[in-house]
Amino acid sequence: MEYERPLFFQVMRYAARADRDVIDMVSGNPDWEPPEALREGLAEYAGGEPRDFQYPPSEGLTKLRAEIADRRGVDIEQIVVTNGAGEANYLAMAAALERDVSEEVLLTDPVYPYYPGKTDLLDATPRYVATDADGRLDPDAVRAAASDETALILVNTPNNPTGCVYDERTMREVVEIAEAYDALVVSDEVYDHFDYSGTFASALAVESENRIVTNAFSKSMAITGFRVGYAIVPPELVDGVKTRHMLVNVAGSRPAQYAVLQALQKTGPGYYARNRERMTERVKTFTDALDRAGAEYTMPEGGFYVLARFTGFPGTLENVERLIDEIGVAGMPGEAFGNAREDWLRFALLTPRVEEAADRLAEYFE
Ligand SMILES: Cc1ncc(COP(=O)(O)O)c(C=O)c1O
Fold it and tell me: What is the pTM of this model?
């Protein structure tokens, strides 16, 4: 198998080599502080005993699993702590494909690129369901695409890259479709703390044995480098998920899990609210500038990203490089996210320089 370098790295490398100041709107790394208790937990850990530096339980620190289970209202036995949402998604997809003789994976278009990558890795076949202009997923379209061949339906809400938040009716119907074909829903909710619409509904709201919810602290605690996430798995699948996790990783990082546990226990809702507010302000600043530039865009209901289309300027890799060279703004080409938005560009609003980037774009396209 060849090493498949994500387009994301290619754009980052191009931006790093540019002979000018470039504002990074490519990466999904939050630019704000983690919870204070996370830093404290990590510092405290450094002074621990040698035994604290050894393997944790493979499925995750028991206290962390208990804390997550308590918050999510599920049994602790259903929680497997993973190396971020990335591993949780992989384990969930593998579990769905393992339990089913069929091998079709329903994905949305636009799509977060690692999903088709993992589908390929697991020797499964992707089948795409188009979303509407705002990124909304029509359950009827999912129903039309589903069949006995469907092993799993993968949804992501709030969505990367569309910013769409799926409501409870959508989640319920998608789970019901999965049940009708005895498939699994994998619901990636890594941006759940960044719902600006107030309509976010976790797949957990739908009681079912046919769904796995994945999540992580990467975005909610601004710690993409810590690699702590989790999967909430139906009881009959959890042993398979734990086994795959153990055989691939042995275990996750103990200090990272410890620090996340401290942060979960000691951080009030204000921390998350402040980060949400910061993002809603950035969305306003950025979309106001897109209005000035006469661009078409999706108004995010959640998450970190804005998709935009500029007249006569398709979102190709070549045009992304042109924006880096000419105005020092780095975005992602739409082609990275499936076929539906090839003409568009995706901008991550994870820089304190959103206003400056917005002004540069407005001036360039005005
Ligand atoms: C939709 C989605 N899922 C998963 C991930 C990866 O999350 P983690 O860093 O927790 O593995 C990302 C990262 O950008 C993402 O956008």
Answer: 0.97
